[in-house]
Model the fold of this input.
Amino acid sequence: MKKKLITILIVFVVFAGGVGLGWYIRNQTLNSRATIPNIFERVLGFLVQRGEKEDDDLLYYNTDLSDFIVNGSTKTKVALEGIVDKIAKQPDGDYHIIVRPQYVPVGLYLVTEAIPEIKLPLPKEGDHIKIWGIVRFDILHNWWELHPVIG
Done:
């Protein structure tokens, strides 16, 4: 009887700890609707391959610069080609590399951000470059950007 009571108590403590941890995580995130997956979702996610292939995580998708500036991308990692219009050092140590499409009139620009933690040689203004990085939508400025630049 004592063993059964201890087992039930341990199960209850583990369950309550999980609920408490879930509450804590939801309150610490920017997305208040974030949830921790339940056991069924975890098992299903492990057994069933969802969406893209496994090696997609390693790929950078070649994307048209003009299209990316206007529409963004559904891919997390993209590679873009363009002309360096300006390079500016930011107070946080990042470098903004402003890129424009080669054959498009003035007006379309993409802000890319090179961070000091990833050591890369900076291009010169006017250079034709291929740049790849992680896609972000900057809500503050209302534009798509690559941050950080990986190469």
About this structure: The longest strand covers residues 77-89. DSSP finds three helices and six strands in the chain. Residues 54-149 form a domain with the OB fold (Dihydrolipoamide Acetyltransferase, E2P) fold (CATH 2.40.50.140). Helices lie at 2-28, 39-47, 65-71.
